[in-house]
Amino acid sequence: MKALAQDAELFLFDFDGTFYRFTEAFERHCIEATARAAQRLGVSLPFSELITLGQESHIKHGTSFAVFRDRFGLKIEDWHEVYHQELEPHLIESSQVTAAHLAACPVPWALLSHSNRYWIFKMLRKFGLDAVTPEDRVFALEDVRYHYKMTSDSPYRQVLDRLGARADRTVMVEDSVRNLSTAKKLGMTTVYVTQGYSFDPVQHPEVDLYFDDVPTMLERLKAARATG
User: Of 47, 67, 90, which residue constitutes the final position of a domain?
Assistant: First the structure.
């Protein structure tokens, strides 16, 4: 932790599932939003079958969209916008990360999310985080050419290039181990946010450090910096 405190020049945070915990109700809602988006884009299957396809796609590919791209030819640019229009922010009560946490963060930071800007800023406003989040340090999926973190290091490379940052001085903070694999290969320090779930680091060499939540990580970082 001391090495992280001394060497880090950029914290790159995921957003959904990292700043706030997904409840079971919200996870179900996300799959339902996928099904409604598919319907709106012309996939003519029973709603229950669309739900099943979305669930299977999420488990296999890490995104509920993949099966609709592969089987029905939907374009990510179309689906991504419609999907986020179907999401309801009231199902998430609060963010674990507060404006005070971000304002006190001792390292420059940015967001890199698979969500779109419409949803990210809607949730930042809901959580009272918009005032401490510069727009030019938010990178949504459309900002990185719709490249997913779990399948490509391109999103990371694009953000590092735009911010003038180095991979070996960047810390990626994620709630998805799958997304951290590409970050690790690029040379980033990887932090997994467990959200209280059990985790075996021996099974995941792509994870350098892990914490229950982001506030805990920031407190540990603060303490490590204080002790030199």
Answer: 90
